[in-house]
């Protein structure tokens, strides 16, 4: 409830004191809620100003400054334009009173408030020049003025301000015009700071960096620019403080990220190359922060020359030498330094892969060889590591990133060559266990890409792994097992090794020292690759499936193993398949039956054996991945198993009906079961639908809507099922609409929106005429209109898909099921104006830009249904409803821009053109 009467300044001050000084938690919470309400009120503008004038204490000044900033960012429309100037003058007065002792957070909030005001206030034509004129003569205002000059360009893209493209362009022109004066002021500040304090120099370079980053400063002569020279000087000096070093690094990276002329780029390149001794010095003094800064500079340098490096496959570009600087950093003993460079290598490998030019790729081969050598060293564990690595520590995370990187770059040197190089390292005399493990780790990451008929090295590697003893370090054995799993394609091509490999993995699976997890992963890979050759081992695999809980593996790995075994089940003869699958499913259903028989539901412990989802997920893995080749005339070999399991599944749904997680898993099990046997599951449809509808009415689990869409997909083409399916939809509608129509109902239930409109789309796809003829289509369409503004990716996508699927049946060129066309045309003509209005409003004010292609699809489909005159009328009505001016008084969209958007949409032949037009247009309001 908003405040109706203005509080006094003293009352607000009392609230602030309670919030910051009262020891009673209830009183503090009460004060916090009251102050929050106060900040939303119209009275907070005046009282915040008064508190800033009174300067009673730190907390009241901070609260007032923060309130002022918050109001300008979020509630600027509350102020009439006539009060903008007095607000500006008041803020400038407060800032003029800042001293070197004023608390940083108050300075930041006040400066942010004034910076945002300068961007929002259209009547303030030259804010930068005015601020320089007013504040630069006052020595004590140097710090806040630098802060404001830094914040204005930073805030241009603030999502709170929504300046719009026109205003941003106008501000950018203001910044460019003011740049010479700003540069003059920054140079003056830099000279003052030499005799005064580091704080001003830091603020000066931060400001320079920000202006460079938005291309407001001309950089033709930047190498000679005193500020750029100062940046290089700071980066070259050992005595530079850490904070200044960080700022100089940001500044250098900003310079490198701008579009520079070739001459200046060469100058910058040469200057950065001269920082190599400073890098080595930081390593020598063990100043890791500076080391990481240099690494970042060298990496950004190469990124700024990225396309020059790749422009010629004849003569390598001089900038390739920059990679040598980066590789020096990758050679650092601390893996966090190397990690800074990873995105550069990803980008390089992706570009070389796309270009597929062997001559060009060869230029980079020596660098990747050095990179792999460095990664081999960095991936080594500590020699005193006794057990396996903790999967959750930062070094394990680094090794996962190394793994991804190796897989990306290995093709540049050749996976076979990399594998061979590591094999040679393994054979070096005096090899330690940690270097052995690291070499195997690298081999593991390239093994999949080695040709399966390789017979020189892999047989030796496999033999060595199979002969490992218990005395070998546990980490070496773990990585060796993982390597075996990655060699699954080679093993498939060398069936004579399969029995020995399986015996080795089964032995490892029974270990209690952490090796079981690696064995489970490797066995899953081998099952997937060697399906046909593994059928003769099905008896042993069924035994493994029955003994899963005796192995030291988590449930995810157990599910992986069941997936691998199920892929082999699919290759079995019919009688064997049914017997083996029945047995494996029994292992999962018997514990579920015990849970159902047990007493009332207590708290379900997620991931424990008493959690029904634990067993449902396992059964689901078996059903999902058992896909035998069965003709439509044959009775599916698993149908009987499914029919027998249904009563138990139904009991689970009843007993655990309040637990959304168990319901989702159970619905997924039913979904895969139905998908597996398809129309043969028709006997289950009626009891399932009855139970789903009943439970959905009680608990609103959206997974039932999703399962309903699966039934529509499978059974809507069977005429006798259509009425039952439409009855199901009708039963779903009332509880769904009731939930979505309350305040924030759409926003709070995106899964329901997603699954409901996916269900409706399936009806349109599978039985369009009965759906369009039903009385349900109108309320569903009305609900979809309301859901247009929902900014949830999947939910909004389902709504847009629903519109597209429906409108497709009304196209003028639609000759399939022609009875649908007049029904859709009528819907489009009745709702077209509201649809376009909501789509345009949602695009401008609610949706992320990546969601606009879906909107474009709907507009394109609507164009194909209604006449051009109608579509143009809908668009113009929607555009006329948009605000032409912002609360700051500047123009959001000109009539020319509105007309251009309308004409582009009308002319567009494909959704892509509409998407481009939408993205350009919405930037006018963001």
UniProtKB/TrEMBL annotation:
GO terms for cellular component: cytoplasm; nuclear envelope. SUPFAM superfamilies: ARM repeat (SSF48371). Coiled coil: none annotated. One of its GO terms (molecular function) is small GTPase binding. The keyword DNA-binding does not apply. Transmembrane segments: none annotated. It holds the Pfam family TPR_TNPO3_IPO13_4th. Residues 31-97 form the Importin N-terminal domain. Signal peptide: none annotated. GO terms for biological process: protein import into nucleus. Its main location: cytoplasm. Keywords: Acetylation, Cytoplasm, Nucleus, Phosphoprotein, Protein transport, Transport. The keyword Magnesium does not apply. It is found in: Cytoplasm; Nucleus envelope. It comes from the Eukaryota. Interacts with (GTP-bound) Ran. Interacts with (phosphorylated) SFRS1 and SFRS2; leading to their nuclear import. Interacts with NUP62. Interacts with RBM4. Interacts with CPSF6, promoting its nuclear import. Importin, which transports target proteins into the nucleus. Specifically mediates the nuclear import of splicing factor serine/arginine (SR) proteins, such as RBM4, SFRS1 and SFRS2, by recognizing phosphorylated SR domains. Also mediates the nuclear import of serine/arginine (SR) protein CPSF6, independently of CPSF6 phosphorylation. The nuclear import process is regulated by the small GTPase Ran that partitions between cytoplasm and nucleus in the predominantly GDP- and GTP-bound form, respectively. This is Transportin-3.
């Amino acid at each position: 409830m908003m405040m109706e009467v203005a509080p006094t300044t003293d009352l607000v001050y009392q609230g602030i004191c309670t919030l910051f000084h009262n020891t009673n938690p209830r009183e503090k919470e009460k004060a916090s809620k009251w102050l929050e309400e106060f900040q939303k009120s119209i009275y907070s503008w005046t009282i915040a100003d008064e508190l800033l004038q009174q300067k009673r204490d730190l907390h009241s000044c901070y609260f007032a400054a923060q309130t002022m900033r918050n109001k300008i960012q979020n509630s600027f429309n509350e102020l009439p334009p006539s009060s903008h100037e007095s607000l500006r003058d008041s803020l400038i007065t407060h800032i003029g009173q800042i001293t070197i002792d004023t608390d940083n957070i108050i300075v930041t909030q006040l400066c942010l408030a004034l910076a945002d005001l300068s961007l929002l206030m259209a009547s303030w034509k030259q804010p930068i020049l005015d601020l320089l004129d007013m504040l630069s003569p006052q020595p004590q205002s140097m710090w806040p003025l630098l802060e404001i000059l830094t914040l204005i360009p930073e805030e241009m893209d603030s999502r709170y301000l929504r300046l719009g493209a026109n205003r941003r362009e106008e501000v950018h022109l203001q910044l460019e015009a003011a740049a010479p004066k700003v540069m003059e002021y920054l140079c003056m500040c830099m000279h003052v700071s030499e005799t005064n304090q580091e704080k001003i120099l830091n603020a000066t370079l931060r400001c320079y960096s920000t202006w460079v980053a938005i291309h407001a400063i001309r950089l033709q002569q930047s190498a000679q620019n005193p500020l750029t020279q100062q940046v290089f000087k700071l980066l070259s000096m050992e005595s530079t403080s850490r904070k200044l070093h960080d700022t100089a690094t940001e500044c250098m990276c900003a310079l490198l990220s701008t579009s520079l002329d070739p001459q200046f780029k060469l100058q910058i390149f040469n200057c950065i190359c001269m920082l190599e001794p400073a890098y080595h010095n930081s390593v020598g003094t063990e100043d890791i922060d500076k080391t990481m800064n240099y690494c970042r500079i060298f990496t950004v340098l190469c990124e700024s020359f990225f396309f020059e490096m790749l422009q010629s496959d004849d003569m390598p570009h001089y900038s390739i030498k920059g990679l040598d600087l980066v590789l020096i950093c990758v050679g650092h003993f601390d893996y966090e330094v190397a990690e800074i460079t990873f995105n550069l290598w990803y980008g390089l490998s992706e570009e070389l892969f796309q270009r597929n030019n062997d001559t060009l790729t060869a230029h980079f081969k020596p660098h990747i060889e050095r990179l792999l050598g460095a990664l081999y060293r960095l991936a080594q564990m500590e020699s005193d590591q006794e057990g396996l690595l903790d999967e959750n520590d930062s070094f394990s995370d680094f090794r996962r990133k190394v793994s991804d990187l190796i897989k990306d770059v290995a093709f540049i040197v050749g996976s076979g060559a990399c594998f061979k190089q590591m094999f040679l390292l393994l054979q070096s005399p005096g090899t330690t266990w940690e270097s052995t493990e690291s070499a195997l780790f690298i081999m593991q990451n390239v093994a999949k890409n080695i040709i399966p008929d390789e017979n020189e090295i892999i047989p030796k590697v496999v033999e060595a792994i199979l002969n490992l003893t218990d005395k070998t370090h546990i980490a070496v054995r773990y990585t060796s097992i993982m390597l075996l799993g990655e060699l699954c394609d080679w093993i498939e091509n060398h069936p004579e090794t399969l029995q020995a490999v399986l015996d080795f993995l089964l032995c490892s699976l029974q270990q209690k020292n952490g090796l079981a997890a690696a064995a489970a992963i490797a066995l899953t890979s081998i099952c997937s690759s060697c399906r046909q050759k593994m059928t003769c081992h099905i008896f042993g695999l069924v035994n493994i499936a029955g003994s899963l809980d005796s192995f030291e593996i988590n449930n995810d790995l157990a599910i992986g193993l069941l997936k691998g075994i199920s892929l082999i089940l699919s290759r079995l003869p019919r009688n064997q398949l049914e017997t083996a699958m029945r047995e494996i499913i029994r292992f999962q259903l018997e514990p579920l039956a015990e849970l159902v028989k047990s007493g009332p539901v207590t708290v379900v412990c997620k991931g424990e054996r008493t959690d029904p989802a634990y067993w449902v997920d396992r059964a689901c893995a078996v059903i999902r991945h058992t896909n035998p080749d069965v003709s439509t005339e044959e009775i599916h070999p698993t149908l009987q198993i499914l029919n027998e399991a249904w009563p138990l599944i139904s009991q689970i749904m009843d007993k655990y009906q309040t637990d959304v997680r168990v319901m989702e898993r159970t619905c997924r099990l039913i979904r895969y079961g139905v998908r597996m046997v398809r129309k043969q599951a028709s006997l289950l449809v009626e009891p399932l639908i009855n139970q789903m509808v009943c439970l959905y009415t009680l608990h609103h689990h959206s997974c039932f809507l999703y399962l309903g869409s699966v039934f529509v997909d499978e059974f809507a083409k069977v005429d006798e099922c259509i009425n039952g399916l439409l009855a199901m939809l009708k039963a779903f509608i009332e509880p769904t609409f009731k939930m979505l129509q309350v305040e924030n109902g759409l926003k709070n239930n995106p899964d329901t929106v997603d699954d409901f409109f996916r269900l409706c789309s399936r009806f349109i796809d599978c039985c369009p005429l009965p759906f369009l003829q039903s009385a349900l289509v109108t309320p569903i369409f009305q609900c979809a209109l309301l859901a247009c503004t929902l900014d949830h990716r999947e939910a909004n996508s389902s709504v847009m898909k629903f519109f597209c699927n429906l409108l497709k049946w009304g196209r003028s060129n639609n000759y399939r099921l022609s009875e649908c066309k007049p029904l859709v045309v009528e819907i489009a003509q009745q709702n077209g104006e509201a649809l376009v209005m909501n789509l345009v409003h949602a695009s401008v004010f609610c949706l992320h830009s990546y969601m606009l292609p879906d909107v474009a699809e709907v507009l394109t489909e609507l164009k194909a249904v209604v006449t051009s005159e109608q579509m143009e009328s809908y668009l113009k009505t929607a555009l006329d409803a948009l605000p032409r001016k912002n609360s700051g008084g500047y123009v959001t969209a000109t009539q020319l821009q509105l007309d251009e958007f309308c004409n582009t949409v009308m002319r567009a032949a494909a959704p892509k053109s509409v998407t481009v037009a939408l993205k350009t247009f919405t930037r006018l309001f963001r």
